[in-house]
TrEMBL record:
<keyword id="KW-0227">DNA damage</keyword>
<dbReference type="InterPro" id="IPR013849">
    <property type="entry name" value="DNA_helicase_Holl-junc_RuvA_I"/>
</dbReference>
<dbReference type="GO" id="GO:0009378">
    <property type="term" value="F:four-way junction helicase activity"/>
</dbReference>
<dbReference type="Pfam" id="PF14520">
    <property type="entry name" value="HHH_5"/>
</dbReference>
<dbReference type="Pfam" id="PF01330">
    <property type="entry name" value="RuvA_N"/>
</dbReference>
<keyword id="KW-0067">ATP-binding</keyword>
<dbReference type="GO" id="GO:0006281">
    <property type="term" value="P:DNA repair"/>
</dbReference>
<comment type="subunit">
    <text>Homotetramer. Forms an RuvA(8)-RuvB(12)-Holliday junction (HJ) complex. HJ DNA is sandwiched between 2 RuvA tetramers; dsDNA enters through RuvA and exits via RuvB. An RuvB hexamer assembles on each DNA strand where it exits the tetramer. Each RuvB hexamer is contacted by two RuvA subunits (via domain III) on 2 adjacent RuvB subunits; this complex drives branch migration. In the full resolvosome a probable DNA-RuvA(4)-RuvB(12)-RuvC(2) complex forms which resolves the HJ.</text>
</comment>
<comment type="function">
    <text>The RuvA-RuvB-RuvC complex processes Holliday junction (HJ) DNA during genetic recombination and DNA repair, while the RuvA-RuvB complex plays an important role in the rescue of blocked DNA replication forks via replication fork reversal (RFR). RuvA specifically binds to HJ cruciform DNA, conferring on it an open structure. The RuvB hexamer acts as an ATP-dependent pump, pulling dsDNA into and through the RuvAB complex. HJ branch migration allows RuvC to scan DNA until it finds its consensus sequence, where it cleaves and resolves the cruciform DNA.</text>
</comment>
<dbReference type="GO" id="GO:0048476">
    <property type="term" value="C:Holliday junction resolvase complex"/>
</dbReference>
<dbReference type="InterPro" id="IPR036267">
    <property type="entry name" value="RuvA_C_sf"/>
</dbReference>
<keyword id="KW-0547">Nucleotide-binding</keyword>
<dbReference type="InterPro" id="IPR003583">
    <property type="entry name" value="Hlx-hairpin-Hlx_DNA-bd_motif"/>
</dbReference>
<feature type="domain" description="Helix-hairpin-helix DNA-binding motif class 1">
    <location>
        <begin position="71"/>
        <end position="90"/>
    </location>
</feature>
<keyword id="KW-0963">Cytoplasm</keyword>
<keyword id="KW-0347">Helicase</keyword>
<dbReference type="GO" id="GO:0000400">
    <property type="term" value="F:four-way junction DNA binding"/>
</dbReference>
Length: 198
């Protein structure tokens, strides 16, 4: 079992990143790959390892608190690795905890793979267990051309990988293009998640 890995990020995709540690490349699934950048500086990822009969997978998080929250989500019946990542991708731990503590089923069912029954189970299981301090930071969006926009396309691919449907993504793409201010793939991803879970 891993606690964390310190390494260099060598590639970023919509669903995972590659982290090189002592010459070994680890494929790590993360909720928002584009908050990370390829570079020579070492970065720490807190790791949750999932082992099944057919697969071994690593899930990475920027903070230990995020990792613990993800593991608490996985303990809820009906929430798997993918839907857990979709919930974490919003990078709004405070909002998530508040929704659980106030039994806000409507908020929770906005996430892909989370129906009313699973949302109610999540509230039942975690309402009295969560005490998370969020390290969420909002990033202002900066201006960028709307036509050829690889950052937006990467963000849409990441949203699709989290389980959002094509019809939802078409709506989000239109609204994101209408924004007067944009910045990075991470900013597009966050803005898209806010629109989809509003």
């Amino acid at each position: 079992m891993y606690e964390y890995l310190d390494g260099i990020i060598t590639s970023v995709t919509p669903t995972y990143l590659s982290l090189e540690v002592a010459g070994v490349g680890y494929l790590v699934h993360v909720a928002n790959p584009y908050q990370y950048e390829v570079g020579d500086a070492k970065q720490r990822l807190y790791i949750h390892q999932s082992v099944s009969d057919t697969n071994i997978a690593l899930y990475g998080f920027a903070t230990l608190e995020d990792k613990h929250l993800y593991e608490q989500l996985l303990n809820v019946s009906g929430i798997g690795a993918k839907s857990g990542l979709a919930i974490m991708a919003g990078n709004d731990n405070d909002g998530l905890v508040q929704a659980i503590q106030t039994s806000d089923v409507k908020f929770l069912t906005k996430f892909p793979g989370i129906g009313k029954k699973t949302a109610q189970q999540l509230i039942l299981d975690l309402k009295d267990k969560l005490a998370i301090e969020s390290a969420t930071a909002e990033h202002p969006l900066e201006s960028q051309p709307a036509n050829t926009n690889p950052q937006l396309q990467d963000a849409l691919s990441a949203l699709q990988a989290l389980g959002f449907k094509d019809k939802q993504l078409e709506m989000v793409q239109t609204r994101l293009l209408d924004l007067s201010e944009v910045q990075t793939t991470e900013a597009y991803l966050r803005a898209g998640l806010k629109l989809l879970t509003k």
